[in-house]
Amino acid sequence: MAVDNGLSGPEQPKGGRVTPPAGRPQLKMALIPKPPEGTRAVMVQSGEGTVFIRGSGKTDWVCGECGAILLERCGPHQVQGMVFLCNACGAYNDIPV
Length: 97
Ligand SMILES: [Zn+2]
Hints:
Layout: E1 26-28, E2 30-32, E3 41-44, E4 53-54, E5 60-62, E6 69-72, E7 82-85, E8 92-94
The protein binds zinc ion (ZN).
């Protein structure tokens, strides 16, 4: 859901919805060794699939090892400080700074 506070002026897009571009930019996450216990928040996917978070940003973040999508449409600030354990290949992925 897009938030529109109506303060941006009279130019409102009308009569049609915006189709997201088919190919979103994909950024590779940084591979890191397994963090020592208790030092980082490691996110582990317990179910099927590899996507941890679906957001409303513009960028997909993929596993630096196997290329599986871990964060869909996610801004880097949304997941700062977290480490993601890839459900496909078992690599630890961090947001590159
Ligand atoms: Zn992977």
